[in-house]
Amino acid sequence: MRRCLMSESEAAQASARVMTRCDQLAAISETPEALTRVYLSPEHLRANRQVAAWMEAAGMRVWQDSVGNICGRYEGLQPDAPALLLGSHLDTVRNAGRYDGMLGVLTAIETVQWLHQHQQRLPLAIEIVGFGDEEGTRFGITLLGSRGLTGSWPDHWLAQTDGNSITVAEAMADAGLNAAQIADAERPLASIKAYLELHIEQGPVLEQQALALGVVTAINGARRLNCQFIGHAGHAGTVPMTHRQDALAAAAEWMVAIEQHTPRYGRDLVATVGTLQCLPGAVNVIPGEVRLTLDVRGPEEASLAALVAELLEQADAIAQRRGLQFAAEEYYRIAATPCDAQLQAAISDAVTQVQGRTISLPSGAGHDAIAIAERWPVGMLFVRCAGGISHHPAEAVAASDVAQAIQAYLQVVCDVAAQGQETR
Amino acid sequence: MRRCLMSESEAAQASARVMTRCDQLAAISETPEALTRVYLSPEHLRANRQVAAWMEAAGMRVWQDSVGNICGRYEGLQPDAPALLLGSHLDTVRNAGRYDGMLGVLTAIETVQWLHQHQQRLPLAIEIVGFGDEEGTRFGITLLGSRGLTGSWPDHWLAQTDGNSITVAEAMADAGLNAAQIADAERPLASIKAYLELHIEQGPVLEQQALALGVVTAINGARRLNCQFIGHAGHAGTVPMTHRQDALAAAAEWMVAIEQHTPRYGRDLVATVGTLQCLPGAVNVIPGEVRLTLDVRGPEEASLAALVAELLEQADAIAQRRGLQFAAEEYYRIAATPCDAQLQAAISDAVTQVQGRTISLPSGAGHDAIAIAERWPVGMLFVRCAGGISHHPAEAVAASDVAQAIQAYLQVVCDVAAQGQETR
After folding, report:
1. Are both A19 and A120 inside the same structural domain?
2. Mutation for testing the A interface, residue in B135, B235, B329, B332 having most A CBs under 10 Å
3. Inter-chain contact B235–A388, Cβ cutoff 8 Å?
4. Is the pTM for the entire model greater than 0.90?
5. What integer pLDDT is reported at residue B421 of this predicted model?
6. Which CATH number is A263's domain given?
C-alpha cells in the first residue's frame, strides 16, 4: 500500500513541471492579453495536442474522443483492466485564470509519469481525460465534455448556438468532429471503476485554515430564483415614510433576513443576492419595483430545500406586512452531488499523510464530477488558491502546495486502484 | 374683511371653467398623446397667448416679460399700488399631468375675474404670473421663470443646452426674446408685497385626511447624495457566509436603518434610496460594490442636517463592522423654505371657513415659491390630488375641491391685500 511514495525532490520537480505547463497552456488563448479558450476553438484543439504530447511522454496511449475530450490510458497489470479515471477540464471562462481545470489534468499526468518512470503497474488501468467544455463559455451549456463520457447529451444541445450563431453541430464539423458520432464518447459502465478530480478550491477556506489540501465532501446543490417585490412608486418628497410601499425597503429587509437565517441551516450553506434592479430608478422616486436574484447552495438537498422555503416565507411575510406583492420563480436547479465515502476516506488518508492533518469541505462551485457522479463514484481533492480567487487572471497557487497535491494524488491513485480491484 | 364671499354657484361655475381650461392647456403639447410643454417651445408661447386672453377677459392688463413669463395686472384702489403676486408655472415634465402648475395660474385668474365682475378694487394691485419654466424639463436647470422676477439668473444659464444642443440664449432668440434683456424681468422689491401660490399637493396627506385644502408650512429642504459601499466580489458558491464582504448586504442593512431612524427626526422628514446599482451584478457573484443614492428632505434645516449626519454615521459603522468602505458625496442641496407666518394664518383662516377645519403640512416637492421667497414673503395653498399622484397623466383633482380652493383663494387674496396695505 505504501509503494507509491513520491520523494520530496520528485514532488518538487513534478510541481515545477506542472507550473511551467500551466503557463504554456495559458499561452494558448483566443486573445494574447487575456486567457480565453473555449470549446471546439482552434485553441482548444491546440491545447489538446499539447496535452496529448505530455500524456504520451508519461507513457500513455492517447486519443481524442468524439466530443473533443483528450484522453490517455496507462495500462494496469492486466490488459483491458477497468480504469480509475482522473480528469478535469481544459476550457476556460473569458479572461480566466490558468489553474482552474488545467491543474487537475496536469497533476494527473504527473501521477502517471511517476508510475511510468518507476515501472509500476496497478491493478486498475489509469485513464486521464482533459474535458473539452466544463465552463459553458461558448454555448451557455455546461459539462459537455463529461456528459459525452456518460452518454447524456440532450438532443437539443446540437442546435445550441454561440455568440456568432454557430451551432454546436457546426462547430464540431469545423473542428473535424462528427456530430453523428457523439455516442461513441460514451464509456461502458464496467470500464470505469471510479473518478478522481483535483481542482483549485476557488474559495478561501483552505487558505484561512493554513492548509494546502482538503477533501471534498460534496459538490453543493444550487437553486437560482428570479424574485420581485412590487409596491408603489411615489414622489420621494411628498409621500410620508408611514405611507410608502417602497419595494427597495422591502427588499432590504429581506436581504438582512437572508443573511441572518442562512447560517442557522448549517455552516456550509450560502445564499447570495447577486443582482438587484430598482425601478423606476430615479433619485427622487420611491422604488415601485425591485427585481433581484437569489442563489442558494448547500451540500445536502434537505437543508437546501428547507432554507429556500424559509427564505421565501420570509419574503412573503415582509411583503404582506408592507402591503406589497412578492413573487419568485426558480429558473435553475442542480442537485447536490455527494462524494463517495470510500474515496473521501482514501483522499483523507493521503492528505493526512502529506500535510499532517486533513480537512473536509464542500465544493461551492460546479465540476465535471457532477456529470460523472451520475454513473460512477467520484472523489475530489482541493488545492488552496490565493485569496480564494478564481475565474480571474489573479488566480494563483503555490508551487509548494502543488508538490504536496501531487504527492497526495499519487497516493490516492495507488490506494484506490488497489481497493478498486478488491472491492468494486 | 368678509366682502370677498364667493357664492356656491359662482364657485361651481369658476371651478368648471378652470377644469375646462386645464383640458384646453393640456391640448397644447409637443406630442398629441402625452402632455409635454417645455420652456421657450412653440407650445409654451401658444399657452402664454391663451392664458393672456383669459387674463384680459378677467380685466387684467397683460404682458410677456423678458424671460417668457406671462404676466397680468389688476389695478388696486390706487394706481401704481404695490402688488400681491399670485402665480404658478405653465411648463410641464414629459408625459405630464394637467394640474401641476396650471391649476395655480387658472384659479388665480378666477379670483381676479370675480373681483372684476363684482367691480371690487383692493388696497393692493393683484398680479398673476404664469412662469415659463419651473420643472427644468428642457435645460436641466429649474425655476427659470421665477428667478427672472428675482433677478437671480446665474451667468452660466445662457450657455446651458437642451437635448438638441440648443442653448438657452438661442432658444430665447428663437422664441422672439432677447437674452440681453433678461434683467428687465427683475421686479423692484417695493413693487410686490407678497406672493401666493396654489398648487396640487403631489402627495397623499390631504386625501388621507379627507380634506380638500391644506396650508403649506414650508417647502422642504433637500439633500441628495451619491453613496457607495465597497467590499469584495467573490464566488457565490465558494465563499462561506462568515467570510464575505458583501457590499449589497451592507447596503441592505443601511437601508433598513434609514427606514428606522428617519421617523425619529420628525414625521415630516423623509429619506429615500431611489437608485441602486450592484456590481459586478451576476447571479453567482457576491456583490463587490454597490452605488446608491440617498434623497433626504425636511421642512427645517437643523433636523434635516442632523438626520443626514446620523444616517452617514450609521453607514460608516456598518461598513467598518463588515470590513467594507463607505463613501458619500452630497451633489445637490436646497435649503428649506419656510412660508410666511402671517400668510399661513390668512390661508388657515380661509381654509377653515371653507372646509370647516384646517391642516398644515410641508411641501415635499419644490415650487416657484422657493425662488420668490428669496425676496418676498410667500404663502402656499395645497389642493388634494387623487392618490397623491403627479408628474403622470393620471394626475387628477375633483371639481368640487377646485371650487372650494377658489373660494378660499379669493378670501386669502382679499384678506392679504387688506393686511398688506396696513402692515407691510
Report:
1. yes
2. B235
3. yes
4. no
5. 57
6. 3.30.70.360
